[in-house]
Amino acid sequence: MSQHALDREMGQRIRILRMARGVTQAALAKTIRLSRTQITNLEAGRSAWSLWHIAQIAAALNTELWRICHPQWRILLEIAGGEDGREEQDSMDGSYI
Question: Would the pLDDT of 81 be above 70?
Fold first, then answer.
């Protein structure tokens, strides 16, 4: 999978999480001190972001980092002791995100 495709998938996960929590792009941008345009570009997969920014987004959306980066990261984070591994059901479609 190309980096652009990975960025697009990550952006889609951010958008789903943000919308499920009722947070606007503008509100998220203000919380993490970025522009709304930067959030738009991230969600569209047009921008690559640092782990620092992704961690800030996860914190702002009150979610685990692995839910944004990639679901398979959960295993690595559990091994490292960074996450408890609890699943959260997405209220939009019932899937686990």
Answer: no
Q: Is the model's pTM score more than 0.85?
A: no
- Say if 30 falls within a structural domain: yes
Show the 3-state SS of the chain: CCHHHHHHHHHHHHHHHHHHCCCCHHHHHHHHCCCHHHHHHHHCCCCCCCHHHHHHHHHHCCCCHHHHHCCCHHHHHHHHCCCCCCCCECCCCCCEC
Number of domains in the chain: 1
The answer to the question of residue 89 being in a domain is: no
CATH of the domain at 65: 1.10.260.40
| pLDDT reading at 93 higher than 50 | no
**Rounded CA separation 34/52 (Å):** 12
What number of residues does the chain have?
Answer: 97
